[in-house]
Amino acid sequence: MKTKTVIFILLAVVISCITTSCDTQAKRQRQARALYERGVQLRAERHSEEATECFLEALSFMDDVETQNFASLQLRANIKDNLGAMYNKHQLFEEALAMHRSAIADFKKINDSVGMMTAWRNCGRVTKSLELFAQTKAYYDSAFRVANLLMDTVMINDLYLEIGRDYYMEVGNYQKAIECVERAMYGDGVETQNFVFLQGNDLDIANMTLGILYYYVNRNDEAKPYLEKALRSDRAGVKMSVYQTLYGIALNEKNIKMAMKYEGRFMEYMKLVEKKNNNENILRIRAEYELKAQKSEMETLHRTKSFKLYLIIAVTLSVALIILLIVRKKISDNKIEMEKFRGQVERDQNRIHELVSDMENLIRTNDELRRDHQTLSQKELLMTNKIMSRNKVFVTAQGLSEHVTAESLNFNLSDDDWADFINLTDLVYDGFSHRLLQLYPKLGKWDVRICCLSKNDFSNQVISILLDTQTDSYYKRKTRIKQMKMNLVDDNRTFEEIVNAV
């Protein structure tokens, strides 16, 4: 009677699993669409990590959908294009470009002009970050052609703003950049009735860009009104760039009081931007969802073979019951062996107590050594500062670290000063530059100087001032050194951690 009951229960479980394991491609596509729509909503709300998570999971669902109809191709392309935008936001530029190009290929299969136009624009944004400016121009031109055919005035204005900022401004054609940004803001004076004015964040970026461009061409009076308007933005990065430009204008006008005021605001927003840039959870999210995709594939395979699997489980349970009975009998026959085992356990416990006592002694010894090491480290730091203080680069950087003034900004460093700085760094850090170039032979002269400054623990602001560049440009330069010259694209460490590990 018991055997019949067990068999009945097993059959009921098998049937229930079969009926609940049906997971059609249509269902997976619906799940992917729901995740994609949720990701779009989160992206609009600026929750980039959660949005990326939704797009990755949606793409994993679509990878199992074999149907190549219009709806599935369009959904897959939209997911890839949005995921590429998230990768670009988190500075995963190579992955972002590959995702946008794959989206373009899918959009072409279904002749989706709007999708191709958006993806081309996104490719232009990524190649600008990679400093592939010829490709940037080509992608934006492709997007322009489609936008003009569709008479999409909103996209046309966005493209004028972006090509002015991302291409002409970057290659140094400031007058052309000004013309493009003004065209985005005010139109061409012909179709004013159909012109759609920039709003919100786009308008703030346009005002900031025009202000910076006029500053670059020494038209400070025209730059100021646009910079003041850009300060209405709620984004810390925009305000940081605006205050940095206002700081430069004040210095040019020898208005030290205003320059120091703008410097303070610049430092305030720079800290906010640094805090935001330190968020690198995108790598962890991507890895997690690659594992989830593999798990999902295994679960799908499991469901398709559920009937055979549960039959095997039923046989396995039966065999396990027989083995259990044999084991129980064997245990009852081997009580003497168990007693011996208990004796061995007691001896092992005594040995463990002895090891714990030895470990406590080692811990006490280690604490003493650590205190001695701290004292030695303090002496080494004093000696390092004494050695490095002979060098003009080090003294200048120390002065900028303590307080940025008009006087401290008036410095002139020669190649001999830099060579002496690198030699002293090698003396203090045991041939640091030689070991650095052995590991990363692609590094140039200025790359080695940047690494030596970072090795001496100078801040991003101080290094950007020594390099005579803006702080956000220095962040991009560190990223290029790490990805292109050190070939550490997949390395999760920061630039400073990599340098200090040499």
Word description of this protein:
The chain has 502 residues and is an all-alpha fold. The protein has 24 helices and no strands. The protein is flat, with a radius of gyration of 32 Å.
Keywords for this entry:
502 residues, mainly alpha, Serine Threonine Protein Phosphatase 5, Tetratricopeptide repeat, 80% helix, flat
Assign a percent range to the helix content: over 70%
Strand percentage lies at under 5%
Secondary structure: number of strands: 0
The run of helices and strands is HHHHHHHHHHHHHHHHHHHHHHHH
In short:
This protein is an all-alpha fold and 502 residues long.
Helix-strand blueprint:
Elements: H1 2-20, H2 25-44, H3 48-62, H4 70-89, H5 93-109, H6 113-129, H7 133-150, H8 153-168, H9 174-186, H10 200-216, H11 220-230, H12 236-252, H13 256-277, H14 281-304, H15 306-333, H16 335-388, H17 392-402, H18 406-409, H19 415-428, H20 432-439, H21 445-455, H22 460-466, H23 471-485, H24 495-500
Helix pairs in contact: 1-15, 2-3, 2-4, 3-4, 3-14, 4-5, 4-6, 5-6, 6-7, 6-8, 7-8, 8-9, 9-10, 10-11, 10-12, 11-12, 12-13, 19-21, 22-23
